[in-house]
Design a protein that fits this description.
alpha/beta, Rossmann fold, 2 domains, binds NADPH dihydro-nicotinamide-adenine-dinucleotide phosphate, binds 3-hydroxypyruvic acid, D-isomer_DH_NAD-bd
């Protein structure tokens, strides 16, 4: 089998080859492209004679999938697969897997980093401190005792719940199914409406799909308390970001921490959240710890090994 890594995976080529060694030792060939390309013709050339494709976050269009006439599997080095044309993959009987769980600690930690950044005014106070100022006029609030509302209690949302409990927070959640382990720890499931009405902080950990696109709209934002903050380290299009910017600028809510955007990268200079009040922004870095990059390469090649053994794991379709 020919395995093609279509774009960099955040670990050096030698390290990647070491991780893929069990496959190479079985006689499979590995081609690694170290430069990302967005040129469709170039991508078609790269995938032409491959059997297994490894991609990270670059959109994988149907026409590129169709150009790989011998393709049997796409091993996505990402949790979300909303950038892959799954309909065309399905039509062509191609198995798609993801790297579920590779970045869970990294995303959980940044989620709390964003929360604390806003509650303690870390970003503005950094500037004030350098200019010789004081904390005068900057609020200092704790996580402890606050109610955290989690949308999506899967791998990431579930661990966010556990850390929140350790911080002394009350945790409520909305998810289409209920997790018994979390319930036993004290997490209370309720409707999305009740989560928005009750929470001091809402954090989003849903995947982007047809049901979640735009789900956090003006109606839900209006339900938030004036003192509430909203965190999104899932996917930008889950929120109506124009409505969110308006709510922040009109001080209808008290802050926001955003790692993901409707279009990225780069984020256009007129993007509504770029200059919104009391907002901390990061350029989609939640996943990108050095440790997560190594974990994800391990999962991606393990997925391929399992597929070749006839026992696929982390299957999306
Ligand atoms: N910013 C970043 O760097 C990163 C962002 N992400 C984003 O975070 C998302 C979540 O990741 P992860 O926790 O690992 O994924 P999981 O698949 O483990 O969790 C997703 C959760 O969302 C629930 N869910 C899915 N659709 C709906 C719906 N329509 N209504 C209610 N609940 C729903 C699922 O419920 P059920 O259990 O019933 O299926 C599941 O509990 C990813 O899809 C990705 O987009 C992930 C990694 C890094
Ligand atoms: O793995 C994912 O889905 C991510 O968002 C990483 O950026």
């Amino acid at each position: 089998m020919k395995i093609t890594v279509l774009e960099p995976l955040g670990v050096e080529k030698e390290k990647l080859e070491e991780i893929a060694r069990p496959l190479i030792e079985k006689g499979h060939t590995l081609e690694i492209f170290e430069e990302k390309s967005t040129d469709i013709e170039e991508l078609k050339r790269r995938v032409k004679d491959t059997n297994i494709l490894v991609i990270a976050n670059s959109p994988l269009k149907g026409e590129v999938i169709k150009a790989a006439s011998d393709l049997e599997m796409i091993s996505v080095a990402f949790t979300g697969v909303d950038h892959v044309d799954l309909d065309i993959a399905k039509e062509n009987d191609i198995l798609v897997s993801n790297a579920a769980g590779y970045s869970t600690p990294a995303v959980v930690e940044l989620t709390f980093g964003l929360m604390i950044g806003i509650l303690r005014n870390v970003v503005p106070l950094h500037k004030v401190t350098r200019e010789g100022g004081t904390m005068e006029g900057f609020r200092q609030r704790e996580l402890h005792g606050r109610t955290l509302g989690i949308l999506g209690t899967g791998d990431i949302g579930g661990d966010v719940a556990k850390v929140a409990i350790a911080f002394g927070m009350k945790v409520i959640a909305f998810n289409r199914s209920e997790n018994e382990e979390l319930k036993n720890l004290g997490v209370e499931y309720m409707s999305m409406e009740d989560v928005f009405k009750t929470s001091d902080i809402v954090t989003i950990h849903l995947p982007l799909n047809d049901k979640t696109r735009g789900i956090v709209d003006q109606r839900y934002l209006n339900m938030l308390k004036k003192d509430a903050i909203l965190i999104n380290a899932a996917r930008g299009p889950i929120i109506d970001n124009n409505a969110l910017a308006k709510a922040l600028n009109e001080e209808k809510i008290s802050g926001s921490g955003i790692d993901v955007f409707d279009m990225e990268p780069p984020i256009p200079s007129d993007y509504p959240l770029l200059n919104a009040k009391n907002t901390v922004l990061t350029p989609h870095i939640a996943y990108a710890s050095e440790e997560a990059m190594v974990r994800r390469a391990g999962i991606v090649f393990k997925n391929i090994e399992k597929f070749l053994e006839g026992n696929p794991q982390n299957v999306i379709i």
